[in-house]
């Protein structure tokens, strides 16, 4: 489940700049050019063939509405069964945006405090022997300022690499820590169903997947998405493929796996389903049991930490709560990419103009398409119509 850095080196001048090179994601009242959509639909299969990407699902949102959604290629290069708009893909690290939403709602309700130490919510320390643990808050985790590395290994045990809040370090471990606190406050742990993960870490099953479905997926009508593998997800799932387009074995995520990875990379979804979540970011709800109000959404999108040149991911200059941010004169773009074995994904959103896109692929070479300059240029023209 480690976040792959492959995407960072796959032509970042492409789609990561497609939400407006100079003018931003400008959406007028004109009808989007059919010829530009036709160009998108022509170019994607060409790039998929060039980079040996078996399948892709995409959705484009304009002015708060789903404008276009289409699927390409196959779920499995052996069976050749076609991808459709209901085919589910692993979202990988894009999952962090959905978990961040859930955390912000818990803070809005007063279940969590955004700036209180997570140590006060857990019965045992997440890490022994470092008093700086008491400085780590939900805000610092969601903005990757906890100081934890991405994932522990036998060679690099879990540690706090700097005083929390003073620097940026992308961290799946931080999300796992925050997820543990959420489970302590809202869910349950099954001590009789456990497994061993990185560096021998023991993790026991929880109901975090059920919590996320109830509190985020269902309220956003994401009816084709989920966490723990089941027959409903399995009947139309895309299989992972390596960079040569060869099918790989697909994990069937269990409740134990989700206890470790749900927040950082456990979401299984469709492009169309995820577009519903994006649209929900444009429509705050006051006094709603599940949807965020305006104040919470604004806080989630507010810049938390500036990134040095060597820290930049996907062209982002800053990080908010759960989202990377490209700062632009015409308005900030929030985005997140994802990469784990056999799957690559990218989401970009212009909150001000209520527009954006999501693309999901089932190939290790997906980054070459997601960050392709030619496709980015076509999308830029499409968004500028």
Keywords:
385 residues; Beta-lactamase; disordered N terminus; alpha+beta; two-stranded antiparallel ribbon; 29% helix
Describe what this molecule looks like in 3D.
By secondary structure, the chain is α+β, with helices and mostly antiparallel strands. The protein has a single domain (6-384), classed as Beta-lactamase. The chain is 29% helix and 17% strand. It has helices at 34-50, 95-109, 138-142, 172-186, 208-217, 231-234, 255-265, 271-280, 294-301, 366-370, 373-384; strands at residues 55-62, 65-73, 89-90, 189-196, 202-206, 268-269, 305-306, 318-319, 324-326, 333-340, 343-350, 355-361. The strands form 3 sheets. The chain has an 8-stranded antiparallel beta sheet with strand order 2-1-12-11-10-9-8-7, sandwiched between helices. The chain has a two-stranded antiparallel sheet with strand order 3-6. A hairpin with a 5-residue loop joins strand 4 (189-196) and strand 5. Helix 1 packs antiparallel against helix 11, helix 2 (95-109) crosses helix 7 (255-265) and helix 4 (172-186) crosses helix 7. The longest helix is centred in the N-terminal third of the chain and has 17 residues, at 34-50. The radius of gyration is 20 Å and the shape is globular. Mean pLDDT is 92; it is low at 1-13 and 20-30.
């Amino acid at each position: 489940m480690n976040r792959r850095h492959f995407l960072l080196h796959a032509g970042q001048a492409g789609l990561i700049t497609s939400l407006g090179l100079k003018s931003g994601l400008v959406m007028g009242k004109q009808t989007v050019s059919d010829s530009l959509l036709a160009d998108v639909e022509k170019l994607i299969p060409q790039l998929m063939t060039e980079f040996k990407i078996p399948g892709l699902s995409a959705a484009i949102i304009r002015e708060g509405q789903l404008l276009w959604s289409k699927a390409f290629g196959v779920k499995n290069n052996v069976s050749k069964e076609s991808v459709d708009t209901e085919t589910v893909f692993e979202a990988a690290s894009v999952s962090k945006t959905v978990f961040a939403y859930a955390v912000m709602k818990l803070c809005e309700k007063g279940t969590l405090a955004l700036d209180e130490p997570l140590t006060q919510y857990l019965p045992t320390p997440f890490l022994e022997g470092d008093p700086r643990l008491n400085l780590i808050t939900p805000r610092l985790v969601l903005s990757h300022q906890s100081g934890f590395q991405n994932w522990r290994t036998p060679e690099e045990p879990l540690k706090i690499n700097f005083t929390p809040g003073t620097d940026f370090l992308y961290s799946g471990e931080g999300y796992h820590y925050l997820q543990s606190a959420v489970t302590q406050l809202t869910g349950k742990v099954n001590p009789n169903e456990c497994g061993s993960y990185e560096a021998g870490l023991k993790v026991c099953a929880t109901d975090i997947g059920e919590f996320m479905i109830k509190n985020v997926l269902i309220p956003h009508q994401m009816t084709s998405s989920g966490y723990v593998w089941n027959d409903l997800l399995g009947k139309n799932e895309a299989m992972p493929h390596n960079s040569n387009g060869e099918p790989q074995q697909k994990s069937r995520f269990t409740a134990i796996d989700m206890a470790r990875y749900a927040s950082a990379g456990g979401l299984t979804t469709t492009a169309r389903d995820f577009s519903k979540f994006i649209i929900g970011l444009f429509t705050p709800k006051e006094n709603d049991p599940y949807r965020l109000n305006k104040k919470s959404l604004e806080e989630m999108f507010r810049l938390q930490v500036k990134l040095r040149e060597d820290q930049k991911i996907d062209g982002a200059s800053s990080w908010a709560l759960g989202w990377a941010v490209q700062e632009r004169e015409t308005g900030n773009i929030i985005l997140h990419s994802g990469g784990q074995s056999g799957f690559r994904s990218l989401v970009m959103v212009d909150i001000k103009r209520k527009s954006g896109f999501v693309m999901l692929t089932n190939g290790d070479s997906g980054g070459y398409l997601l960050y392709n300059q030619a496709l980015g240029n076509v999308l830029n023209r499409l968004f500028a119509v």
